Amino acid sequence: MSYDEHSTDAMFSRIIGRLDQQAKDTAEHRTELIAVLNEVRNEVKLTNGRVRSIERWRDVITAKVAVISAITSFLMGGIAWAANHFF
Length: 87
Description:
The protein has about 90 residues and is mainly α. The N and C termini lie far apart (about 125 Å). It has one helix spanning about 10-85.
């Protein structure tokens, strides 16, 4: 029996071979994609931690500025009151 490349068996064999190769390529691509996504997730966690610390620092600075402003306003109001009543 001779080999006929146009026979249905040969055609199906080529199709099955291509499907197997496609499945291997898809599995490799999925593995690479999952590795990249895990790396991105780790970087996002690191960045979120940095952003949280910067936001906390901003809140502390804002609170300090508010306290200093309140104290300064109180002192200046006291000086203005004293200047108005005693001078």
